[in-house]
Amino acid sequence: MTEKTSGAAAPLLRLTGVGKNYGNVIALRDVSLEASEGEVTCVLGDNGAGKSTLIKVVAGLHRHDTGTYEVQGEKVAFGSPRDALDRGIATVYQDLAVVPLMPVWRNFFLGSEKRKRFAVMDVEFMRETTHREMAAMGIDLRDVNQPIGTLSGGERQCVAIARAVYFGAKALVLDEPTAALGVKQAGVVLRYVVQARERGLAVIFITHNPHHAYPVGDRFLILNRGQSIGYHAKNDITRDELTALMAGGSELEELAHELDTTAAGTAAAKELRKETLNP
Ligand SMILES: Nc1ncnc2c1ncn2[C@@H]1O[C@H](COP(=O)(O)OP(=O)(O)OP(=O)(O)O)[C@@H](O)[C@H]1O
């Protein structure tokens, strides 16, 4: 477990025994997690595991029904994403709310435009700032005037991350930022995740890919059907163990067991077990 030198200081964000129902669907049950400055907490889970619901609680879109949510040691129950943002919790969704035909800098400042006297937009300032902030995160944009729609998916994610950092986020919640990306682009985004951590943010990184989570994560929460099936610090778990847990360990064993009833099936079951433990 990565011990913080700050000793007794409360983590930036802490969920304890949180539950959330949609009518009689239990989307989350008794889930706990912490996110501290300068750390990446990964939340892993398959479809329907409860990842989106967890994000919505953290981001202020939904209130939790049970358990507690604390920010810097203070209990909160956000009524809207604005409340969460006011406490420094910024969420970057996979389907980024960008205006594709507008320049990168306009998207960077969208809704928070810098103005000079007589409400005239300070375009120069916004262009320079966008370029500088992107460079600080390790991306050298040739032209901040280019429409954001011309950037790659990975670069667009990076603009959103840089923007959140610039506007003072203390905690950054990333909703499957690498899901729709190829290996190279995913690598670019992972580099940003590390950058955000280096800049002292508490990062919550939602993903279903243990190969993306493991290299950048400090803690790992694995969800399955709304419940935690593991919460580990990096030095408590290997990448292979994380992958096996994520693959739904017992479910795969069940699948292998079913396959293992004929000679041909035995070979496939063996393969499946091997795959799960040594991806
Ligand atoms: N608005 C809703 N009303 C009813 N049930 C819901 C609602 N949103 C989610 N659920 C249910 O809650 C459970 C958790 O869903 P959630 O979307 O949080 O999972 P997820 O891990 O994000 O999955 P995915 O990766 O497929 O988005 C699922 O069984 C889902 O069907």
UniProtKB/TrEMBL annotation:
Entries under InterPro entries matching the protein: AAA+_ATPase, ABC_carbohydrate_import_ATPase, ABC_transporter-like_ATP-bd, ABC_transporter-like_CS, P-loop_NTPase
Read off the CDD domains from this record.
Answer: ABC_Carb_Monos_I
The organism's place on the tree of life at top rank: Bacteria
Q: Provide the GO MF annotations for this entry.
A: ATP binding; ATP hydrolysis activity
| Keyword ATP-binding attributed | yes
User: What Pfam families does this protein map onto?
Assistant: ABC_tran
Q: In its keyword annotation, does this UniProt entry include Nucleotide-binding?
A: yes
The segment(s) forming the ABC transporter domain are 13-250
Q: Which UniProt keywords apply?
A: ATP-binding, Nucleotide-binding
- Transmembrane segment boundaries: none
Its name, as the record gives it, is: Sugar ABC transporter ATP-binding protein
Organism of origin is: Actinomadura syzygii
